[in-house]
Structures
1.
Amino acid sequence: MALSILNNIASLAAQNQLSITNKNLQTTLFQLSSGQRINSGADDAAGLAIANGLQANVTALTQSSQNATNGYGMLQVADGALSQVTSLLNRAVTLATESSTGTVSDSQRTALNAEFSSIKSEIDNIGQKTTYNGAAIFTGISANNNQVTTNVTNPAGLASAITGDMKIKYWDNTLATPAYTTQTFGASTGDTTVGDLIDDINNSGTGLVATLDKTGNVVVTDTQGRGNATDPLADGGSTIKINGDGAADTLAHTSNSGNLNVYLSDSTVAGSTTISVAMGTLDSNNLNGISLASDNLSSAGSAQTALTDINNAIAQIAALRGNIGASSNQLTAATNVMNNQVQNLTSAEDGIMSADIPSEVASLTKYQILEQTGMSALAQANQMQQNVLKLLQ
């Protein structure tokens, strides 16, 4: 090989290889310091996309599990209240049976009827004042000011594009002077897809939780229950357009339709469902379809009529408790399934994102040695051209 002083090819080769080694060493150090195999899209673009999708699944399933747990707790409260109603109705059976016999005087029936009226009043109180998380359980149809949903024309998926902003309003107790606060999410905060929007809301630290329901609408819930009839959660200033909709998608408050609706989702349309439990109103005029409002124990005949109604009411309350029990079991089963999904999806995400520490430690050792040998080789390559001077001596 001819000796040349114009270009040091060996030095260039050593520099190139040393640059490659340094890059690999830097990547290995990033992985070891973060514990993650993928630290940027350049590391594994496809793997990052899959892992982010799995993260969205895990986030939605974790919240859905909490939804189911909260729903189970609410059903337990409702069952406890209905148990007390059953006890009151059993006492009413005793009173009606006693008033039905001819050995009871009219004044005694008046006393029996007074106690029966008190029982009906107490049933009314139970129906009105049984609450869970500050909300009445047996309320019938009422507005849910702490949850809003979009009204998309084209059902959305996580990858659906968005424009404009979603504005959510709530009472913020964290301020020095508590006040209603409008939180903005959407294009102005860097969100370009429905998945971005949901992640933005869920990671905002505001107590707001966003999901994508089975109809392809974004649902936002205030877990701290800060909306009310005067200042509900939805802000009329929203301009968000989802999945190519021509007009802005308004935010509508959901309603408590007399049902307990527990929303469960893995953040996809196909993986979303709602477990609905009929609750309705509860008072002496509506004991799961039976009314005692017009019954009295003033006479033997009316007491016998009341006795029939009371027995029917006991049967209907038992049926309602049976439905609540079945739904409680369903929620428990759903919670178990979702917790198992969270475990498996987390494991799958971990397999994609986590660095293989033993392998990376071995790579670290390899690249550190290569860096040292590369530096030595570069020094030797630079020294080679010095030998040309010996020819001039």
2.
Amino acid sequence: MIGLPYPTPSLRKTIRRLGRSAVLALAMLALAIGPGALAESRIKDIADFEGVRENLLVGYGLVVGLNGTGDSLDKSPFTQQSLIGMLERLGVNTRDNLSKLDTDNVAAVMVTATLKPFARQGTKLDISVNALGDAKSLQGGTLLVTPLLGADGEVYAVAQGPVAIGGFTATGASQSVTKGTPTTGRISNGAIVEREVGFDLGKLQAVKITLRNPDLTTARRIAQAINRSLKDNAAQPLDPATVQLNVPAGYKGNVVSLLTDIEQLPVQPDQIARVVIDEASGVIVMGEKVQISTVAIAQGNLTIRITETPQVSQPGPFSTGGSTVVVPRTDIQVDENKDKKLALLKSGVTLQELVNGLNSLGIGPRDLISILQAIKAAGALQAEIEVR
């Protein structure tokens, strides 16, 4: 709420002279041009800094201790091979009794984790465990020591611990019930970082800021906001997705403080006019900058209904000839909606006017997709259409 000063006598006379309607209009104008009129975002919410990124880790392991819900030998032979290799590393020879080595209580799994930026040795990570074979459930299982590798093939973390799942399976003689996905689980703090990703942020001479939604205007606005804050021409946009920030002399060796000051700066991001259409679900999303030229739209539905009503024809009573037959009866009805009218959408209408105009024709999402594509083909839709 905006606070207003107490009106003086001269101001009260002016208010009475303008009238209530004019005062209401001025108040609405003050609210419209207030701080919330322009949707601004912090730089940290629309861009990332070079080097401050996550790394994906993956590993292959075994979950043991299952209650007969593990992998089968015929469908998941790799589980038995992995179990043999693990036991041999522990000094247990099982190759002489392969026929007796059962894997019903063991499941092969893929383990994934995300290595946070600047994670140090000893930092714990949450991991996700997913069955790789034909195991029915991971409930009650424990993941054995599993190395987690990065994209370069190096081990960055080691995972182990009891698996917690969010689903279950109950099976009876003739019916089973499954809730959620019992072959997927998580282990909170189940991995320990063993190797750090080397990156010295403090010694950087320049930092590149990467936009999550590349745009020339937004990149320029970010550079201008940074230069105004630093009172220096330290930031320059290189392309729609990158802004290079040269570390000023006052921040040499203290890049963390520089990025802390930069990421809080408000910037109004720009966007291109785009219409996103998901034909599978019928979802349509239109940006606020979508504009159309003058165009007339008519939409009508032609419905054809075919009804089959077979009837039974029997011979008359006490007749000596004839037989009972089924006679087909087909009823075809054609319904053409003639109430649909031609609607005119004038040039430069807003998104709200476009939606209201199409809704006035009684158009559903499916028909709206075809109409938007037809408007684009006619050259009247000044926006990019993205079909998914």
3.
Amino acid sequence: MRIALRGITLAYDDQGQGIPVLLIHGFPFSRQMWRHQVGALAPVCRVIVPDLRGFGESEGTPESVEQLADDLHALVEALALPPFVLGGFSMGGYVAFRYVDAHADRVRALMLLDTRAEADGPEARQRRFAGIDRIQREGEGGFLDDFVKLVVSPDTLENRPEIAAEVRRLMDGTKIGSLIGGLRAMAGRPDSTPVLSAVRVPTLVVVGEEDKATPVEGSRAMAAAIPGAELIIIPGAGHVSNLERPDAFNQALLRFLKRLS
């Protein structure tokens, strides 16, 4: 599906009926990263998966996580969604924090998926800008090849290369401008830890046991800071836990969603 919002066209899929669940993909992916989730969740809820500005089939170039949150709110308004479940993976979690901070009354429940609330420190920001330099010098191929090694667990890389290959394929076609814009947006995002204690809706925190990008310790702290939050650790998964261990990931989300209804 396509919809014109805020001067660009956003692409999204909308399947199922029941409580709306809006899932926000991470960097450098598109809505296709949810391929294992949509089929599992659609029988029990309405699943909406947009491509963020500049990613997948959506137009534009990402500039900030606040901009991406504003795009999502425009989509929510256009679809006339009632209070909905908001789920954000990695960069999508950074966007979700900005959305909750601005529109807490629209969110019925929250799912924070392999993400973190803290802003980048100096070293992390430098790594992002080094990535931008590399993409500008060499193109995106080598950067994305190495990104797979960051987001996939060592066990998956060694023993399930077909999963690592799937993760790499899901990055194909991402525009260089969107890669650069996404890296800059993440480097410049604000600290969202003050948002955590203000969350007053049911919250699920999910993280891969071997997540190197957003480690388990950070998810534990995040869940502890949100009143009543539930933490699920996915065994044997790295950062892309929904792709590496989709069955366990889907079961965690389904249990949470069924409790809401």
